[in-house]
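Section: Multi-chain targets

For targets with more than one molecule, the full set of components is provided together so that the structure can be written out for the assembly as a whole rather than chain by chain. Components appear in the order listed by the source. The example entry contains two components.
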Amino acid sequence: MKNTRLADLVMGLLFVFLAIYWFVEAEGMVKADAGLGPGDYPKVVAAGLFLLGLLLAVSSLLAGLPRKEGAMDRKAALRLILFVAATIVYVQLMKPLGFLLTTPFYLFFGMWFFGYRKYAIAAVCSVGMTAAIHVVFRMIFQVMLPELRLF
Amino acid sequence: MLEMLTRGFVDCFQPAVFVLMLFGTFTGVIIGALPGMTGSMGIILLLPLAYHLEPHTALIMLSGVFCGSMMGGSVAAILLNTPGTPSAGATMLDGYPLCQQGKAGKAIGIATVASFFGGMVSTTCLILIAPQLAKIALQFRAADYFSLSIFGLAVIASASGKNILKGLIAGCFGLLVSTVGIDVILGTPRYTFGNYYMMGGLGLLPVLIGAFAMAQVFSEVGNPPREADIIEQKITGVLPTWFEIKGIALSMVVGSLIGVFIGIVPGTGGGVACFMAYNVMQKFSKNGDKFGSGALEGVAAPESANNGSTGGDMIPMLTLGVPGDSITAVMLGALTLIGIRPGPLLFTETPRIVYAIFAGWILIQFVMLGLGFLSAKFAPYVLRISPRVLLPLVSVFCIVGAYTLSNSLFDVLVAVVFGVIGFFMRKYGYPVAPLVLGVILGPMAESNLNRAMLNSNNDVMVLLQRPFSAAFLILSVISIAVPVINAYRAKRKLPA
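Its structure, encoded as tokens over all components, is:
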């Protein structure tokens, strides 16, 4: 059942559950004597999201036959998961290994992943662009990018 | 006013400000010219730099990106038959036929002159209208500001997507995200899951970077981009003749006025303005039958309209703090990060910044004029940059940009998470602009609602008793109801 209507139903229900969670959490917060307490505004917003999510779920159920467009194919989904995972690994490795050591590999991987096959140019670009970004952010903006620390 | 404007020019001619204005406009033209890259993304990518600058310098640089991207979009539309930005969609209709006839230079020249003209008209309107609107807005109280936030969200939710329900959900989700962290009233931690990093809430910069820029990279992952067709044509004859300028004068005037009007109306922007101006001129021009086959007026009208909308877009954003479209929503986020709260108080408390922006906008139009003519020389080289190299680089810029906010890898992870959220939102037709606006306006809405409740002994009717507040709430209902009714009517007209 790959279709946008199913996606609308799933998303609608997801928003409904999120809103319920937000509301229940807000109920447990301190109450204010005057004005708004910390939980009052989130409750108003959660109530709005609940109604809108419910409307989306119900309208997707009433909409009739499913449509095929908008479905995400398996290959595209796998590629997305792989790229996001690579990005998270890169971010996690940046802390112990540093920006300078990890970024060229991530850039080279990214270029290969997006279909760039001139490997020599990709390698030079990866190293060159990493150095350029490091110089701009470290030297000009004084941003302490993560560095490799042996001790 | 003139004295303040002169002071603004003096500020703009400070070497650092001027150089960054040139840099911003140049970056805007390049980003606009690259298909798939938008002005919003350009502003986001420069935010880490803006963060380290004086407020007026940062604002002028980002304004340069905004205006430059509008003009840059036309270059790709003319040379590649692909609009660099949605605002150049109509430019393609006559720009590309001109390119096929070997007149790419002429088309770029006309687009540049028209962009300059539209930009100047809109800047004049910005300077004349914004201070007056700010004077009215000075009378707003807490209840009015709360209702204004609702109005801003309702308008952008109704205008930024095909499905208004999804727009409203996106806005509501943004408001929900804004409640994470220590609350603004009593200092109670909310939805932090005991995580120290979430105490301060989810940073606006990581959310912006994730939802707009990283989501764009992720959305290219499924279908790797193809290389652009290389332009072999020698581009000459960029400077238009006096006779040609006379021929497009009416199109420029009509296009600019349409652009300004469309820009001021919240929820619309250059994308709507360019097609409206094109259609109007096609109907009323004596050369209307030549539109679509390489008419110079067909390039001038949309280009003056999309640049005409830029100043108009800025009017509600600067005076009320309510953006009209996604790019001004990003601009609003940028201002908030720099430490500027747009609204009427900006005009009374920091007029120097306001007039520096006005002066900057005038200068940007001249810079754009020069860069536009030069772009005919450098654009073909820019368009050769492979998106397969560019996308990983954008990804790294996003990561570094998110990191610079507080030197924290947690912010980077927030950006990645919002990149994934933004990807799915695009995929399933949820507009991203209301999400970002919800995150920006959430704290403002909450603190003003609290103040209104305190002042009225928790009487909710105060929202309807104040005229401005009631007007904003009624306008919110109208802005939601009109698209719903229109969609219903269109559905009924469709044959069974």
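The mean pLDDT of chain A is 87.
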